[in-house]
Design a protein that fits this description.
Largest sheet of chain A: none
Number of helices of chain A: 13
Helix content of chain B: over 70%
CATH superfamily of one domain in chain B: MetI-like
Order of helices and strands of chain B: HHHHHHHHHHHHHHHH
Shape of chain B: globular
Structural class of chain A: mainly alpha
Largest sheet of chain B: none
Order of helices and strands of chain A: HHHHHHHHHHHHH
Oligomer: heterodimer
Radius of gyration of chain A: 25 Å
CATH class of one domain in chain B: Mainly Alpha
Number of helices of chain B: 16
CATH topology of one domain in chain B: MetI-like fold
């Protein structure tokens, strides 16, 4: 590549990293400052192994999936899927009108939101409580992360055992005079799922809230102490504003993870799942590998990709891509 | 001031020395009782189910089914039966093999990719960075069918059997681990000074030489973090493993899931074995995390993604 295209590439980078307010004439803009050693002879080939892998295992299957969503594909035509009959948008029509897809989307989104609504206050409480040093804080911080570290399939297996009829949850509730009914079947299973998801994912919010708390300047603490602010007012008006960024990030990533979460509902309820917890990933999986309607399942997967794209887009716009010195975006 | 230690007296700046008792008062966020309540509730929330795993694993199946929290009879027998009954011996061996090799290869590949992305300017660089973030959120359920079809096609058209072998899982996990591992390495390598590399270059080191001799030794905490996350991805996956393995290539996650699902509808399920197997599957992950806790938490918040 010539030197011209090198500098061109560099200025494109600078411009696009300031996509929000393109200002190529800004005074601190010093292109060509560092050229020479590191700009000649760039080992771009080092990108090839990873790039190739991602193209073959992610991009090609993604396109393949979109193609398959237009095919009438079942267990017989799957072996020769190239020659399966092309039926256009029929799979999409069926997915939207004659399948539980819309119900699944509603379940997935509402459960993700409900779980987030509870995990955020829990996470903040955990972070606020462990921000100041005290004896045993390190141990408690480790304890808080246990649910997050445990593999999802372990979490689901354990809660599945605890929620069995007559098992430990029931016996505890019985002893205080409550008859809870079935946890893993029927309408209540939806709330079981939310409970377990909250248990498993609040530490993630806690982690991000903690990183937000650590960015609170010491001067701010002094100022509010000088003003004699009560602890609640201090939290509400002085500390919480610092958490806005990390918590929005936690919210977006949490939503993406909840909507995409397959392992937890799959192991917790098994397949076929009760219709009250037939979430989007479960429905897509069951349509493929239990009912063998591969084309229909690919159409469902494609629709769920569109659903995912909304929070993902917000996330990608918000996240900081480049070094700290480039004012690219905010975290 | 000395005559009356009033509120005004307390506010002199000498009381704000870092580490002093007053300092603690200043940064304090919660009153003591409130703190105690929150800590107790959250610890109970976490620890009661965790304790239950262990207690149920040494309990009798009838005891678990009756809803005992504290076992009425102790026995460690479950820990010796699970290796064959759940298929945990094969499962763990496969998991270690697949997740371990994923970790090593993905760490090495991601350091090379990240190095180029951090140190060199080229067209499409930001697109790649954004793509790496975006690919982390592609749902597995979207990919599992096309990847399955792709792999079965390789048997039909190329004569290479991928489905049912550990290779298929390895390649899949490696690919899905790459975006996050690379992102972790990108954030890590940004913190490394350029000067050492440039010195090595003046001494005539090649690109690969710089990477292997300078960057790799300097960035091992980053390598460890990205390797561990890749390991966890392989260890925790159920979706791909449930579709692409045969019983002999099953990972521990699938072995446990299948064992749990097969307990339905019979006599009393083998709850004790399920809990013992859960604990054994969780142990390596928890131990890894405890050893590398400091780096891992940093990597998590840097990458911002699980």
């Amino acid at each position: 590549m010539s030197t011209d295209s090198l500098t061109a590439g560099k200025s494109t980078r600078r411009k696009s990293s300031r996509a929000a307010k393109p200002d190529p004439q800004s005074p601190d803009d010093t292109p060509r400052r560092r050229k020479g050693l590191s700009e000649r002879n760039r080992p771009l080939w080092m990108l090839i192994p990873g790039g190739l892998l991602m193209v073959i295992i992610i991009v090609v299957p993604l396109l393949l999936g979109i193609f398959m969503s237009g095919l009438d594909l079942d267990q017989y035509s799957l072996r020769k899927w190239v020659s399966a009959p092309f039926i256009g948008v029929q799979n999409f029509v069926e997915a939207l009108t004659a399948s539980p897809l819309l119900h699944a989307i509603w379940l997935s989104v509402s459960y993700s939101l409900l779980a987030m609504v509870v995990t955020i206050p829990l996470g903040i409480a955990g972070a606020v409580a462990t921000q100041n040093a005290f004896k045993g804080r390190a141990v408690i911080r480790s304890v808080f992360l246990i649910p997050y570290v445990l593999p999802s399939f372990v979490v689901a297996t354990v809660w599945r055992t605890m929620f069995q009829p007559g098992s430990v949850v029931d016996s505890v509730l019985h002893s205080v005079g409550i008859d809870p009914g079935l946890w893993l079947n029927g309408p209540q299973s939806y709330w079981t799922l939310i409970l377990v998801q909250i248990w498993a994912s609040w530490p993630f919010v806690y982690l991000l809230a903690l990183s937000g708390l650590q960015s609170v300047d010491h001067e701010v603490h002094e100022a509010s102490a000088l003003d004699g602010a009560l602890w609640w007012n201090k939290l509400r008006y002085v500390v919480f504003p610092y958490l806005k960024g990390p918590l929005s990030l936690a919210f977006l990533i949490g939503m993406l993870h909840h909507i995409n979460n397959f392992t937890l509902p799959f192991v917790l309820f098994g397949v076929p799942a009760p219709s009250d917890v037939e979430l989007l990933p479960i429905l897509t999986y069951v349509t493929s590998f239990q009912s063998f309607r591969f084309g229909l399942s690919a159409a469902m997967a494609f629709i769920s990709l569109i659903l995912i794209a909304i929070p993902l887009f917000v996330y990608l716009r918000a996240v900081k891509l480049d070094d700290a010195e480039t004012p690219g975006g905010k975290k | 001031m000395s005559t009356a230690p009033t509120a005004v007296g307390r506010r002199t700046s000498e009381n704000f020395r870092p580490g002093s008792k007053r300092q603690h008062e200043v940064t304090k966020l919660l009153p003591g009782p409130m703190l105690a309540i929150i800590l107790t509730v959250l610890c109970a929330l976490v620890l009661i189910p965790v304790a239950y795993i262990f207690l149920a694993s040494v309990n009798s199946d009838i005891g678990v089914a009756r809803g005992e929290f504290f076992p009425s009879s102790f026995s460690f027998e479950n820990y010796s039966t699970i290796w064959t009954s759940v298929g945990l011996a094969t499962g763990l061996a496969n998991s270690v093999l697949v997740a371990g090799s994923t970790a090593v290869v993905s760490a090495l590949m991601s350091i090379a990719t990240a190095y180029v992305l951090v140190r060199y300017q080229f067209r499409g660089r930001l697109t790649i960075l954004r793509g790496l973030l975006g690919l982390q959120s592609v749902p597995g359920t979207l990919m599992v069918l096309p990847v399955f079809v792709l792999f079965s096609s390789s048997a039909t058209y190329l004569g290479i059997q991928v489905i049912g072998t550990q290779w298929g899982l390895f390649v899949t996990y490696l690919t899905f681990a790459m975006p996050f591992s690379t992102w972790v390495m990108v954030t890590y390598l940004r913190g490394l000074p350029r000067e050492l590399e440039e010195a090595a270059r003046i001494d005539g080191a090649s690109n690969l030489g710089v990477l292997v001799r300078i960057i790799l030794p300097l960035s091992w905490p980053g390598v460890v973090v990205s390797g561990i996350f890749a390991f966890l991805l392989g260890w925790n996956d159920v979706l791909f493993a449930s579709v692409m393995t045969r019983p002999e290539s099953q990972t521990a996650a699938v072995a446990l899931q299948v064992f749990g699902a097969s307990q339905e509808g019979g006599a009393i399920p083998f709850y004790g074995q399920m809990m013992a197997a859960s604990l054994v599957c969780a142990a390596p992950v928890v131990i890894l995390y405890l050893i590398f806790q400091r780096y891992l938490v940093g990597g998590l918040t840097a990458g911002g993604v699980k």
